[in-house]
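lol ok so funny story. i was supposed to be doing the assay writeup but got distracted and ended up predicting the structure for this chain instead. priorities right. anyway since i did it might as well share w the group, maybe its usefull for someone
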Amino acid sequence: MIKKRLRSLAFTISLVGSTLLAQGSDIDSDTFSLVGLEGSYSSLDYENGTRTDNTQGSESLGGLGLKIGAESKDFRIFLGAHYFVDSESKYDYIVTYGAALQYKFNVLQIANIFVGINGGIANMKFRTDGEDFSRTLQEPYVGGDIGTNIHFGRSIDFEVGARIMSIQGDNTINSVTYHVGSIVSGYGTLIFKWQMD
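and the output, tada:
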């Protein structure tokens, strides 16, 4: 059910994005291809234990990301991958793959503000305290982002933003459930732009 919704979201984002980017010659002069290199600091919240005895906590994560996309005057669409590393080396890996659709408010000539939605798949492998085996999780996520995009000429932007990815995934082994909630990130992205043909 969730995977069907995720496929529908991805299809809708790609359909809306391609429609917006092909609207006509008045938009063509402001249509760019994009490649972004991202660094982030994030927090992942979790619960671990049984129904009657569980603990809540959070992990600090550093992250790197790569995203490719396109933009018109008012919209941006991205496909991206993010790799996160936790400060305690509890997680062997945390990787997300997904898409984002953003609407831009062009308030200044040197910058714009954006809001958007995102969705994708989160994969992780980890070991909890007191366990001698690893757990894996592969779950869809949905979320949103907000930020500002500062223009350094026509070919480079610097994006500063905040993102939430709501995962809400469970891994249960031996009646002990590890629940992953959300990843909340503050990030900066260097975006390289070039005119689309």
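The two ends are 39 Å apart (CA to CA). Helices lie at 2-21, 25-28.
back to the writeup now i swear
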